[in-house]
Amino acid sequence: MAAPAIGPGTDPKNAAPGVTTPPRRRGTELVMLGFAVLITVAAQTIVDITITGSPSPEIATFSAWFTGIWLVAHLVVRRFAPYADPLLLPCVAVLTGLGLAMIHRLDIAANALGESVSSREDAPTQLLWATVGLVLFVAVLLVVRDHRALSRLAYTIGLVGLVLLAIPAVLPSALSEVNGAKIWIRVAGFSIQPGEFAKICLVIFFAAYLVDKRDVLALASRRVLGLEVPRARDLGPVLVAWGVSILVLVFERDLGSSLLLFGIFVVMLYVATERASWLVIGVLLFAAGGTLAYQLFGHVRVRVDTWLDPFAYYPDGGGYQVVQSLFGLGTGGLFGAGLGGGRPDQVPVAKSDFIAAAIGEELGLFGLVAVVVLYLVLVERGLRTSLVVRDGFGKLLAAGLAFGVAWQVFVVLGGVTGLLPLTGLTTPFVAYGGSSLVANFGLVALLVRISDAARRPAAPPAPPAPKLGEALTEVVRP
Amino acid sequence: MNSPLRKVAISVLVLFTLLILNANYIQVVRSDELRGNASNTRILAEEYDRERGAIVVDGNPVAMSVATDDTLTYLRQYPQADLYSTVTGYYSLVYGNTGIEDAEDGILSGSDDRLAFRRIADLFTGRDPSGGNVELTLDAAAQQAAVTALAGVQGAVVALDPSTGAVLSMVSSPGYDPAQLSSHDPAAIRAYSDSLGAMDPDPRINTTVAERHSPGSVFKLVVSAAALEDGYTSETVVPAPQQYTLPGTSRPLNNYNGESCDPSGEQPLIDALTISCNTAFAQLGVELGEDRVREAAEAFGIDQGGFEMPLPVVESTVGDIDGDAQLAVASIGQQNVQITPLQGAMIAAAIANDGDLMTPYLVDQLQAPDLSVVDQTDPEVMGQPVSAEVAGQLQDMMVSVVENGSGRRAQIDGYTVGGKTGTAQTSADDDDNQWFVGFAGPDGDPQIAVAVFIQGGQGTGGDLSAPVAQQVMAAYLAANGED
C-alpha cells in the first residue's frame, strides 16, 4: 500500500516553532488507516481464495479504490480538521472494510447457488455508496467549519428531519414499502431510507433545543420519592418525542427507528439536565408505549413472541431468521468457520440486517467481539469528545451522535444474538445499505468536526476562529 | 454536563459487555447444542462435502457415498436396500439419521475421536477428509433367506450366533427404500416419507428392536427354565388339566382350541412344552410363584432396561402382575408380558449356548478410511440365565417340540433343530401374533439361534413362523455349516 508514504513527515510539529501545539496525531491516524486497509484487503483475498481458490481479478481495483477513499478522507481531515480524534476514521475504516468483505463473500455464495438470476454483485454497489459517503464526509467538513453554526439552523434542520422521517409514511406503499416496513423512498430504481438522515438531523435539533431549555428543564422541579420530578408543563418536549416515536411505529411499522429516536432523546435530555428523573420518566413512557404497542400491533407481538422462544416459531412463523442466526453463531463457536468456510447465506437477509451473524459464524466469537470492541472504541472516543469540547451544544451533539451509534449497535446486535427482540435496524458501517452507510459517514464527519474543536488549543494564539465563523455564515446563508 | 456524560459512557460499556456476554453464551455455552440441532443444516452440508464411510456386509458395501456435481457433493446410495434397509437406516437431509447411519455416525462421518489423529494428518497432507467404514456381523445368506421368507407379511426375523452374540440376520418387514429418504431433493424426500407414514405400521420402524409384543407360549421357555432351576426335570410330571380355573376367580383358562393336554390330566414337563399345554404352564407358574418367574425372566435380560447393540433396543418386560390369576396368564406369555423379537432370539441363543447369554452385537469392525481396524468387537458374556445342565434339558425339550410337537415345520434335514412356537392374542378381534424361537446346527453344536415374529397372520406360530425360521437357519447352515 501507498499508505506509509506520506508518513509523519508532514506532522506539523516543526511547523509552529515557539508555540506549544498539542500533538495532532495525524500520523497515527494514517498508520492506523493503512492497517485498516490491510485488514480489509486481506479479508477480501481470504474470501476469494477459500471459496474460488484464487484471488479475483478485481481485487487490485478494489484495493486501490478502498485505499483512495481513506486517503482522501485522511487528507481532508489533515487539512480541515487537523486536531480531530485520530481513532474515529480508522475504526470506521475497519468496520466498513469488514462489511465489504462479508458482502462480497455473500455475493459469491448467492451466485454459486444460482439464487440471484442476474448474478448481481452487491459489494461493488456498497463500495460506490462508501464513495458517496466520502463525498458527504468531505462536504460536511468543508461546509461546517464550526459545529456551533449548526445550532443557529437547528429548527430548520429539525424540520427537515421530521419531513424526512414522515415522507415514507405519506407516500403510497408501492413507493415506500419493503418487507412490511414503510421506511423507504423508491424512485427510479433507487431506494433511500430517509430515516437514516432524519436521525442525524433530529439529534442536531435535540442538542440545540436542549441547550436552550436545559435550565428550565433542570431547575423547576419538585422532590418526590427522592427524585427531582419536573413540572407537568415541562414534560412537553419528552411527550412530543415519545409521540413522534409512536407515530413512526404506527405509520411506518419501524420498531427500530422508533426505539432508537426515543432512546437518544431521553439520554440527551438526561445529559443536558443532569436529572436522573428524566431517565425514569423515559423508561416509564417506554414501558407504557411498549405494552400498548404489544397489545395493538401484530408485528410487534410477533417480534416479542419470537424473541422469547424463537424455536417455537421455527421454521414457519417468524422465528426462522433468529434461529438461523443462532445456528450460524453457534456453529461458528469460538474461532468461527473462517472467512468463506461457513454457510452465512442460510440466514435470510444476511447482507443487511443479519451481517453480524455472518461475522459471528465465520470469524467466531473472537471476530464478533472484535467488532463490538471497535464500535466501543468509536463510541467512547465520541463520548470523550463530548466531555472535552467546551460548548454545551457541541457536548450534547457529540453525546447524542455517539450514544446513537452505541444504542443502534446494541439494539441490532442484541436482536441478531437473541438478547433483544428483532427491530430491523442496520448495523452501522458494516451492513449492506446505501442510506445507512452514507448517513453514518455524515455522522462521523460531525464527530470529527467536534473533536477537532475539542482538541484544538484554546482561542487566544489562534485568531482565525471568528473568521471561520463568518466564512461559514456566508456559505450557509444563501 | 460532564457527570451524566461519564455515566452514559459507563452505561455504554455495560450495554456492550452484555452483548459480549450474550455472544459468549450463544457461541460457547450453547455452541454444541445449536451446532447439533437437527434443524441446523450447516453441519449436514459440511458432512455432505466429505466422503462418508461405507456400511459393509461380507466385504460388500450396503450403504456408500458417491460423488455428484450437486452443491451437496456426496450422495448416499444403498445397494441391496431390500435386504439391508432395516439395519442401515437412512441418512436424510430432512429427517436426520436412523439405524447404523445414526448409531455409528461418528465413524461414518469421520468425526469420531478415534479418527482424530487421522483428521489432523489429513490437514497436513491435504488429503480430503473422509469417514471410516462399519463392517456388520450380518450373514448375507441368512439375511436373503429372511427377506424372501417374510415377503408379503408384516413381521421380523432376528438371528444370532449363539456362541458369540453376533447378529446374523435382522429383518423387519415390509422394508422401504432408504435411498429415497437420503436423496438431495427435500420435496421428494418429504413426499416419500409421507407415503411411508401413511402405512400401518410405518416400515421405517425396526420391529426387531423398537417394538415389543406378547410372546405367547414362547414365554413357557422362561417358566420351564425357572422350574428346572428349582429342581424339576424334564420328566417331572406336572398337572395338565383340560381346564384350569384361575386362582381367586371363576374364570377358566383353556388350551388351544379347548383341547385336552393328556387324558390323565397330568404329563411330564417335556410333553407339556412339546404340545404347548397352557393349563400346565399356568399352574406351574403359580406353583413357582411370581418371584421365581420374574427372576428367570430377568436372567434372560427381560426387565433389565433398554440397551444399544449399537441400535437402541427397547426394554422387554414381564409387566405388572396383580395376583395369582394374572401370574397364571403371564406364565403362558399373555397378560402384560411383552418382548422384542431380539429378546426372543436371546432366549433361544442362551439355551443353545449351554446357558451363557452373549451380548448381541451388530458391528463386527470399525475401520479407518484406509481400512485399518479402529475397533473390533469382542464377544462378551451378558449373563448366565441357566446352568449348563438346565440348558441341556431345555435344549432336549425344544428339540422335542420340533420333532414331535408344534414346531415340526422347522425341521431341517441333517441338523438338530430345537424351538418353541408362540401364538399370542393381541385383542379379541385382531389376528394373532405368531412366534417361533429356536436354534439349529449339527447335533450338540447349535450354530444359529433365531426368533421369528409375524404380526396378524391366520394360524399358529407353528404354521407361519416355524417355516420362516427353518428357511433362515437352513440357508445359514448351508452357507456356513462346513467350517
Explain how this protein is built.
The complex is a heterodimer of chains A (478) and B (483). By secondary structure, chain A is mainly α. In chain A, 68% of the residues lie in helices and 3% in strands. Chain A contains 17 helices and 4 strands. The radius of gyration of chain A is 23 Å and the shape is globular. Chain B is α+β, with helices and mostly antiparallel strands. Chain B has a domain at 214-338: 3-Layer(aba) Sandwich (Beta-lactamase), CATH 3.40.710. The model of chain B has no long low-confidence stretch (mean pLDDT 89). Classes of the chains: A mainly alpha (478), B alpha+beta (483). The A-B interface holds A 112-113, 267, 270-272, 274, 314-315, 323, 326-334, 342-343, 346, 360, 364-365, 368-369, 372-373, 375-376, 379-380, 383-384, 386-387, 392, 395-396, 399, 403, 406-407, 409-410, 413-414, 417-419 and B 1-6, 8-9, 12-13, 15-16, 18-20, 22-24, 26-28, 30-35, 37, 39-43, 45, 71.
Mean pLDDT rating of chain B: 89
Spatial order of strands in the largest sheet of chain B: 3-2-1-6-16-17
- Report the sheet-strand fraction of chain A: under 5%
Low-pLDDT segments of chain A: 1-17, 474-478
Helix content of chain B: 40-55%
End-to-end gap of chain A: 42 Å
Short description:
Chain A has 478 residues and is an all-alpha fold. In chain A, 68% of the residues lie in helices and 3% in strands. In chain B, the strands form seven sheets. A six-stranded mixed β-sheet of chain B has the order 3-2-1-6-16-17, with helices on one face. In chain B, strands 8-7-21-20-19 form a five-stranded antiparallel β-sheet.
